[in-house]
Amino acid sequence: MNKLVLENLTKSYGEVHAVNNISLTVEQGEFLTLLGPSGCGKSTTLAAIAGLDRPTSGVVRFGDHVLFDDMSGRFAPPEKRGFGVVFQSYALWPHLTVERNVSMPLELRRVSRAERTRRVGETLELVGLSGFEKRYPGELSGGQQQRVALARAVVFRPPLLLLDEPLSNLDAQLRQSARVWLKEIQRELGLTAIYVTHDQEEALAMSDRIAVMRAGKIVQLGTPQEIYERPQHPFAATFIGSANLIEGIVEQSARRGDAIVTRLRLADGQHLDGHSAVPMAAGTKAKLAVRGERMRVAEESGANTLDAGFTTASYLGNHYEQKLMLAGQEIRMLVDVPQPERAGKIHIAESDALVFSAE
Amino acid sequence: MNTQSAETTLAPPRIGPALMPLSRSRMAQWLIFVITAVLVLAPALPILLQVFVAGPLYERDWDFTFANIGRLLGNEAIGEIALTTLAFAGLTTLIAQVLGVTAALLFGRTDMPGRRVMGDMMMWPLYLSHLIMVVGWLIVYGPSGFLTQAFARMFGNAPWNLYSIPGMAVVAGVSQAPLAYLYCLYGVARSIDPTLESAARTCGAGPLTVMRRVTLPLMLPAIVTSSALNIVIAVEMLSIPLFLGRPARIDTLSSYLYLEGIGASNPQHGMVAASALVLVVLVGATLALQRLLLSRGHRYETVKGKGTRPAPLQLGALKWPLFTLAVLYIAFVVLVPVLGLVLRAFTSYLTPLIPIWDVLTLQNFRDVFQTDAYMRALWNTLIIAVVAAGLGTLLTALIALVIQRSGFPFRRTLEALAYSPRMVPGLITGLGVFYAAIVFAPFGWLRDSIWILVVAYIMATIPLGLGAIQPSVVQIGADLDKAARTVGADWITSMRRILLPLMKPALLGCFVLLFVVHLKSYVVAIFLMAPGLEIMGVTMLGLWENGAAGVTAAFATLQIAMIAILLIAARLVFGVKLYE
């Protein structure tokens, strides 16, 4: 089986670790997304897998092949790896036609002319660009260029497809459809894909698993549902679905049934129960993450009830985003009907409030 | 479509044994590195050696000594010569900068009528060698020049004297003004963000105030860079000091070097090498100063993408007076010397005392075409220029690719090496190659073949070629060759199939630039001259020194015609515009 394995991968620029000791295994046929803000090291990780950038230390393995190992000094250049790469800039060669762009990988592999024509034709059909063979990249729209870039990356049936923010240069509408289309092709060809993006929606919609990255480290690795429902780090909670973070002090923490319920005292003395991964020591500082759409204005039995001051509401189309002050902090919630700007009550279910250590 | 997914993966192409420590790409990079290092260092080392050897290097018994340096320091004349050189270089640069900056502002930033045509004509001296410029000036403004005599007949004595340091500096200054013009024009005048100027206008500044307070200060880096280049060029300039300084017993370092190294019956090689070192130090210090001055360059960074062409400044009432001044300048400084030169080529004697139609003749050209050595000079020049420009373009392109687009571990060293000939004046390059051919056995075959000139020319112009090519490489997105690598091309293949085709316009531009430079070059060749190796420039130098003004002018006219045809052809056929 062709598994991609990263072991303790590190890329440093002087004192700065762009990628800091990452370990990761990608299974065959899997669609894995590296998700994070700019500068989190996701593109550097991808470049290390592609062989475009030499890591500082660690190991990169694919199947039986060691592609990089700092101990033995082994480093396979990109042309020896045979992975398909789709660049953010598409990187289409402007002096070559669409056909020649796509057939270049085959020419380099000394594939016969007849076979080349067949494969290029098939691949262009796959990406929906039949009839564009003789065009030059400069004569194509952004969406079409993106398709040529994908065609070029898959025409030689690479065992692994690497995509570096391939949709970020498309406009919002095109991005939506390209997302679906890209995922379909990946499934159809049975490709293993590693996808880099900073767009959480893209990541949630397309991935089998997501690796949330921050400051060169993987903060959380899991399925989209796990990442969204059970973030293991305040950063994962805020970056995906932009949860509110509320600060407090742990009062008590105890197992109740399957969950560990931790009670926080907020700055204004109110109490709030939430779930935490481990029991937490009383008196320590904690952060509580709660998503805007999981907070209620209507009363709910068994939920935390808190005093809050509603402020401005902004209209977002299908709902409103209401700002409110809770224990001296501004937080945001989603409501169907805007609340008048005055003091009121909100309700948060215990299981929707996730408590993390503040350290 | 489902058949597709059943197809097996195509293995990456086989390029030599897998994971070989020294791939063919790395070997190619090493080769480029070694060629560059040899080209650059081989001529430099023998000069250093000669400084410490008593006799000439070609005498096999080397007697190591410090006497050369001692004699150099003890020689009072050298101190005076160095001061003269500095005064000449300083004054030249001042004149060139004032003219160049003014022209860049007027032709590049205002609505002055005829600014395009005059801007193009302003550049002419740059396409011609100093040798031709000085001959043209002497024919028109020299002590027995056409206009000098005409002026003297009407008003008594002419108030100018070219045989003086200011006279030398004027000729050198107007020859170098185009360089300052070019840097300031493309550095800022054409690319400045117009909102910076508009902002000043909204604050209440008039057009001239805007130029003085905003545009000019933003030009500072361009002014510093072109000043440094002009100082360097003035320091190593040979023909102007030789033709204008010598008659008045004014020596600069290069004319001193020339006369000691070539002219003297018993050349003191140790002294020559030692004073060559002084020249290199002067040039190096200038370039170091330039780097220091520009180390805070970000303060002047104004060009941020956006290809908007700034709206020209309205001159208003000043328009026509400034226009008149510009026309007079172009006429008397650029046109008249060139016309005088051409006229001299077609006459037996040029003086206001005799009507021109009485002296018209083709004899000068007949002399050129009927003398074997002169014809050889013509052909040699052409062949050397083509070969050296071609090989030079290829080499600099490869150097640029290794520097910009490879993982070669010593690419920074390669860059430093490749730019180092900037520190070595052309005269010294020639001297160094001459020594190298004597000292290093593997270079022996170069002696007495025109390849020695090709090698010297290539070496001398590596920085120039690199300067023309490197920006175009930088402009090509790095993803383009990375993409080639990911689909299976090694470094060599991705450079050959992706980068080089994309660099075609820059390569053509570089070739034309180098061709013109080689065509007009003569300084590099001076120490390498031997029977059979004649080239136009050096032949002209000799002819003028022997008083054969008519034949010199004919040669110069031919050279001007060749350069003009080449530039026009390049522009028409390939759309290549030099210096853009």
| Average pLDDT over all residues of chain B | 85
The most extensive interface, with participating residues per chain, is:
A-B, 44 and 34 residues
Q: Name the assembly state.
A: heterodimer
Number of helices of chain B: 26
Overall structural domain count of chain B: 2
End-to-end Cα distance of chain B? 51 Å
User: In angstroms, what is the radius of gyration of chain B?
Assistant: 26 Å
CATH architecture of the largest domain in chain A: 3-Layer(aba) Sandwich
Shape of chain A: elongated
H/E series of chain A:
EEEHEEEHEHHHEHEHEEHHEEEEEEEEEE
> Which structural category fits the helices and strands of chain A?
alpha+beta
Structural class of chain B: mainly alpha
Short description:
With 359 residues, chain A is α+β, with helices and mostly antiparallel strands. Chain A folds into two domains: 4-237, 3-Layer(aba) Sandwich (Rossmann fold), CATH 3.40.50.300; 244-357, no CATH class.
Description:
Chain A has 359 residues and is α+β, with helices and mostly antiparallel strands. Chain A has 2 domains: 4-237, P-loop containing nucleotide triphosphate hydrolases (Rossmann fold), CATH 3.40.50; 244-357, no CATH class. Chain A is 25% helix and 38% strand. In chain A, the strands form 4 sheets. Chain A has a 6-stranded mixed sheet, with helices on both faces. In chain A, strand 1 (4-13) and strand 2 form a beta hairpin. Chain B is mostly helical. Chain B has 2 domains: 25-45 and 363-580, MetI-like fold (Orthogonal Bundle), CATH 1.10.3720.10; 66-361, MetI-like fold (Orthogonal Bundle). The longest helix of chain B is centred in the first third of the chain and has 34 residues, at 76-109. Residues 1-6, 15-19 and 301-308 of chain B have low confidence and may be disordered. At the A-B interface, helix 2, helix 3 and helix 4 of A face helix 1, helix 22 and helix 23 of B. Chain B: It comes from Nitratireductor pacificus pht-3B. Chain B: This is ABC transmembrane type-1 domain-containing protein. Chain B: It is found in: Cell inner membrane; Cell membrane. Chain B: Residues 82-290, 378-570 form the ABC transmembrane type-1 domain.
